[in-house]
Amino acid sequence: MPGRFFLTTPIYYVNDAPHLGTAYSTVNGDALARWHRLIGDETWLLTGTDEHGLKNARAAEQQGLTPQEWVDRTSSRYVDSWAALEVSNDDFIRTTEPRHHLSVQRFMQAIHDNGYMHKGLYEGWYCVSCEAYYPEPDLIEGRLCPVHERPVEWLTEENWFFELSRFEQPLLEWYDGHPDAIFPDSRRNEALGIIKGGLQDISITRTSIDWGVRVPWDEAHVFYVWYDALVNYITAIGYGEDENRFSKWWPAVHHLLGKDIIRFHCVWWPAMCLAAGVEPPAHYIVHGWLLVSGEKMSKTRLNQIDPVDLGAVIGVDALRYHLVREVALGADGDFTYEGLVARYNSDLANNLGNLLARVATVVGSKCGGIGPAPRPAAPGVRLSEIAAEVIAECRDAWARFAGHEALEATWRLVHAANAELEATEPWKLPAGPQADAALGDALEALRIVAMLISPVMPGAAGELWSRIGLTGHPDEPGAAGEHGSLEWGVYPGGLTVVKGAALFPRRTSES
Ligand SMILES: [Zn+2]
End-to-end CA distance of the chain, in Å? Predict the structure, then answer.
């Protein structure tokens, strides 16, 4: 039965350029959203940019721009990158938009009115790059930011505090009642560990900076960038503005995030929701770090790779395939260019690309280029049996956020289709029913593969779809029409099959 699926990526801090780490989050989120659209779920994919804070104000100053001019430029890099990587977001939220300011003010006012804010003096070690205070024991050698390994500054200011300390028990109770809220389990334990370790009130406003959302009950203050940013997830679905829309998508959200922002998302954010009288988000999918040859990708280090440049070299589909296939969502992964090329050549060029080329060639020689229909699903029609298993495994894998397993299963069908061709050798058979059966089954396997890969490789899936003579796109239910069904026996036969250029030309690591 079709359901509903709302997925958010983190919103990215605009001072940082899009890199492989943010592409990793966004592409995996996009693949999940595309899968849910494919199976008929009403789906909403949200991404965007986080644009306030001291770092942006300082960067704008250095450039001789207003902060707004600066973030307009830097935000557009994300819009352009995600478009280039075929990300199908339904909305792109910017925290400098009026809708977001209004929503943050409403949400924070509710927390204030509910009695969970007080004014106090705050001082501590502050990392400008993180826009965060650190307790002294967390600093490296007592003076360096644990993330940036650069000196922190001692700041003192009068702030509004959110009374997070009152939410230890409510959060533990909430998580107790929602045992599946955080995927994977190890991250749930980490979040519970933070809560059980004791929560302190947190300083939530600044007077030292102007570039932020104004505190509605005390206009000398703006909200600290992290807190305003979290609210984007409800701004975008009409919090305080459109109750019907809001309750349609909330709280059944899936927040996709990296493991380094668990504290913000799985502790602060649900506590703020409880304080504001909003149900906490129902699901978190926490992914690991993508390492580049063993080192964590970082905004202040130089090992950034522009994902759009990489996509231009290897192909957008190939890059997306690697980002979903290489690492189980939740685990850490190591990214190497050599690994990307090796997997591309074996899975895409040799297996899937070859299957299509082979089928199209033999359809050309034995059937005059017109693809025959498959045999009906039956015991003994091997590909129909394997396809049914693979489709079921894909459904199960995506439901567990295991896109890599779905692709692995899909490639079992690709391998099986190649193996069947080798077993039946239709190129040696005379034109006629036996050759037609072998080729029709292979074409039906290709149709199903096109659908199963479409969440990850929308471009290649569409190309495969049209090469076997189908119209529309495999992931557009309307356009794919009667042929867009995840069941055996739908390929109609009688369609023109086109061989064309290699779907995935072989690559070398030098290119
Ligand atoms: Zn830092």
Answer: 46
